[in-house]
Amino acid sequence: MKIGIDKLGFYAPHLYVDMNDLAEARGIDPGKFTIGLGQDEMAVPPITQDPVSLAANAAEQILDREDKDAIDLVIFGTESGVDHSKSAAVYVHQLLGLNPKARSVEMKQACYGATAGIQMAKGHIALHPDKKVLILASDIARYGLNTPGESTQGAGAVAILVSAEPRLLELESESTYYTEDIMDFWRPVYSSTAFVDGKYSNEQYIAFFQKVWKDYQEQTGRSLEDFAAIAFHLPYTKMGWKALRTVIEDAPEAVQERLKNNYQISTKYNRNVGNIYTGSLYLSLISLLENQDDLKEGDTIGLYSYGSGAVGEFLSGKLQNGFKKHLQTASHQAMFDNRECISVAAYEKVFEEALPTDGSEKQLNVDEDPAKICLAGVKDHIRSYAVK
């Protein structure tokens, strides 16, 4: 029985800031952002979008009634959850009108949470092949205005439907993973922004990739020649290339060119959204599938997942017959086309808007947000959402 990804959806806020404008406002050479980091635009979430609403909007576009009735497990991977106790998955479960006879939980391990959810989903489907699992990867990356990490912010969500006999990507059984307790990136419960040792984190990202790739080769006997493409977790789009180039030199020239070209294609959406933490790898996968016409049935796609702190994993999947018919290319392109570029001053104003932290009431105007599902306010310590 095949188990894998049946549907993929993505949602980003309707606002963004151009990285050239941000660089100019900060007195920085724009090339440091557009070339050094590989980022062109950065999604800016209005106060009416939080990780719950982003995830619900991503899932809403791909689920039909049959899916909603078959889903009996919802796993929400995030590192920017809205409650220390209640899972974000429960909110989304209600907003989407899913089958009430379901489990709904939240996963946390930095940017690795969604991958952990996918592996759990595979086991669940193996036992219950008539069911489906909804994986949600949703985050808002915040480092603060005028901080070193400001240029690697972003916001967005990916929805992944896992099932038997998937129409997009069969997930293979072989995968390799590695855990080590390190402090490259973390956010204590008392802080609204993360702490990061950038140079160290880059080094560990690459080191973890080299470990799990070597283990994968030894376990499977495969080489780079066996892959049509490898998609990476992308805190910024140059990061994955820094890792790939450490192992690519021994491959035949044609293989190097194929992997390098497909890597660049996989970064297209990430370049225009920024860092979405848990969903970044799967946004890279969506970008690859929707923008590379040369991919075909049976091609093997590698996936490198990394979550600071740290856990890394290399997994793989095979493209299915007719997979292109089940992509959301047109709707995703329309979403990008309809976004609004805002000035740096407007971005700063949006960034500084916040929900009260003292328990007071705040109602939000959702009319200015074109999303179908929005955060509508907070009252009596309870968040409320609007479904238009």
From TrEMBL:
A GO BP annotation: acetyl-CoA metabolic process
Pfam families: HMG_CoA_synt_C, HMG_CoA_synt_N
Lineage top rank: taxon: Bacteria
Binding positions for (3S)-3-hydroxy-3-methylglutaryl-CoA per the UniProt entry: D29, Y143, K242, N275
A GO term, aspect molecular function: hydroxymethylglutaryl-CoA synthase activity
Catalytic residues identified in the record: E79 (proton donor/acceptor), C111 (acyl-thioester intermediate), H233 (proton donor/acceptor)
Keyword list, A-Z: Transferase
Xref: InterPro entries: HMG_CoA_synt_C_dom, HMG_CoA_synth_N, HMG_CoA_synthase_prok, Thiolase-like
Domain (Hydroxymethylglutaryl-coenzyme A synthase C-terminal) ranges: 176-245, 254-352
Ranges of residues in domain Hydroxymethylglutaryl-coenzyme A synthase N-terminal: 2-163
Family: Belongs to the thiolase-like superfamily. HMG-CoA synthase family.
Protein name: Polyketide biosynthesis 3-hydroxy-3-methylglutaryl-ACP synthase PksG
Gene: pksG
